[in-house]
Amino acid sequence: MEHITLLLGIVIVTALVFDFTNGFHDTANAMATTISTGALKPKTAVAMSAVLNLVGAFLSVEVAKTISGGLINEEGIRTEVIFAALVGAILWNLLTWLLGLPSSSSHALFGGLIGAAVMSAGWSSVNGSTVITKILIPAVAAPLVAGLAAMLATRLTYRLSNRVDVKATAKGYRAGQITSAGLVSLAHGTNDAQKTMGIITLALVTGGVIAPGSNPPLWVIVSAGFAIALGTYLGGWRIIRTMGKGLTDLAPPQGFAAQTSAATVILASSHLGFSLSTTQSCSGAVMGSGLGRKGGVVRWSTATRMFVAWGLTLPAAGLVGAGAEFLTKQGTWGIVLTGALLIAGSAVIWILSRRQPVTFDNVNDVDGATAEPAGVVTTAMASVAPPPAGPLAAADDLKTTIPGPDAEPARPATV
């Protein structure tokens, strides 16, 4: 077994930085609906999510093995390729965070890894069947399945509680939201923390530290779990705002239905080793719950921008990863330049984000988002959805006021 070299150490640190960005980028997946409905205070929500992300990191290594031994062929891949892939993933994560778009950190990592591997060793270095079966198909299926499940769950929830007073169920929905948010956080740690474990394990294999096909060492699991938990605790407030208020206005029953549906899809995929995007699953569930409530509005302008970001993530991160790999192939100066560009790009994005900061104090403030009218799809779906749960209208509200006859015009006075 060889010792960890300086370059390999830099790659490991960069991977943990990506894991950190993954944490604050994807905090919205678990806690956006809980924060937007007021079930938990923002700081409490992200603290709870961080702890459960850490716990989830220890529950499975199936996704990590998909990345470290299935996505690309380990033979002939240099350690510099992993570094270039992480550069592409980190910069795309930061850019979409700046724009408040809930794009996929997973696909950013996959895109960067594929682009760097192709630049280094050609298309034969990528296992196309793994890309299709365990990345592309889940990317399409996950938001659709989660959205449909959330829409049906929302309708069922409102139908069951249609004649129940809102105040009588408020505590129950609040407890349900907190529980389901915890489940999503646990699922996120189980799925997303493993991606960094997989990338570090792949770097260790390329550096000759461990044998191909090995499971992630314990120190890799621990470090990846803590990195994603720290990022989660800091909170990606920009994306939380978009997920919680930008896509639709959620009531507690909708939040509960969305989170439960998303958690089920994510945990099932983690068990099967599918490295799906938790962002896409949770976003699809939020939109589905918006369509499931009569009168609910899905803001399709925001959703369209999000869909575009989803489509661009793989190729954009791949191009950046390929460019970074082109530089690292030039030798030491290329590696140093790539690292300098990563630091400079991250600094520029951070400075731009300070112009209009989003914090836990203003995360639920959305300028103009609520003014967007319902579109054709929302109107059609809402027309067949059950009415929201709540008390029956008061008797006074049901009275019809019948206007009296017009007053008889005054007669002129007689002299």
Give the SSE layout.
Elements: H1 6-36, H2 42-56, H3 62-71, H4 79-99, H5 105-121, H6 128-160, H7 166-206, H8 218-234, H9 237-246, H10 252-272, H11 278-292, H12 300-328, H13 332-353, H14 376-382, H15 395-398
Helix pairs in contact: 1-2, 1-4, 1-7, 1-8, 1-9, 1-10, 1-11, 2-7, 2-8, 3-7, 4-5, 4-12, 4-13, 5-12, 6-10, 6-11, 7-8, 7-10, 10-11, 12-13
Low-confidence stretches: 368-404
Radius of gyration over all CA atoms, rounded: 25 Å
* Biggest pleated-sheet summary: none
How much helicity do the residues have? Answer: over 70%
- Termini gap: 123 Å
Overall average pLDDT:
78
Number of strands: 0
Percent of residues in β-strands: under 5%
**How many domain modules?**
1
Overall morphology: globular
Structural class assignment: mainly alpha
Count of helix runs: 15
Q: From N to C, what is the helix and strand string?
A: HHHHHHHHHHHHHHH
Organism: Streptomyces fructofermentans
Membrane topology: Multi-pass membrane protein
GO molecular function: phosphate transmembrane transporter activity
Region (Disordered): 390-415
